[in-house]
Amino acid sequence: MVNVIDNSGAAVAECVKVLKMKRHARIGDRIIVVVQKQRNFGPESGGAVSVSAANKVRRGDIRHAVVVRTAKKYQRKDGSVVKFDDNACVLINKGGEPIGSRMGSVVGRELRDKRWSKILSLAPMHL
């Protein structure tokens, strides 16, 4: 289970496949997820129409995603060890563009090496 940190409408997703790998997913890897829980945006001025328009994905949707944080310790080439509190991802379309327009929290610096610059530019901070 991974947390979704963008504003695409998903809150929690389940990883079902790591693409092009025969190992666990690391930061920057592309995965296939199933949306398990939708994000609750709350009542707005437009009623139910604006809430459903804000949710770009629904529960049960199968989407591509990029892992941006892992709870497993990761040793960088400079010798430092990085460990985050949770596993998190960002939903993307098949072309590799993020579905959401904002990120909610920090992402790993390894995304720069894997050429996910669009995700890095949307994130508030990368460690």
TrEMBL record:
Gene Ontology BP, a term: translation
Keyword annotations from UniProtKB, A to Z: Ribonucleoprotein, Ribosomal protein
CDD domains reported in the protein's UniProt record: Ribosomal_uL14 (cd00337)
Highest rank taxon of the organism: Eukaryota
Pfam family, one: Ribosomal_L14
One GO cellular component term noted in the UniProt record for this chain: mitochondrial large ribosomal subunit
The keyword DNA repair appears for this protein: no
SUPFAM superfamilies attached to this UniProt entry: Ribosomal protein L14
Job description of the protein: Component of the mitochondrial ribosome (mitoribosome), a dedicated translation machinery responsible for the synthesis of mitochondrial genome-encoded proteins, including at least some of the essential transmembrane subunits of the mitochondrial respiratory chain. The mitoribosomes are attached to the mitochondrial inner membrane and translation products are cotranslationally integrated into the membrane.
Family: Belongs to the universal ribosomal protein uL14 family.
Name this protein carries in UniProt: Large ribosomal subunit protein uL14m
Species the sequence originates in: Saxophila tyrrhenica
Gene name in the database record: mrpl38
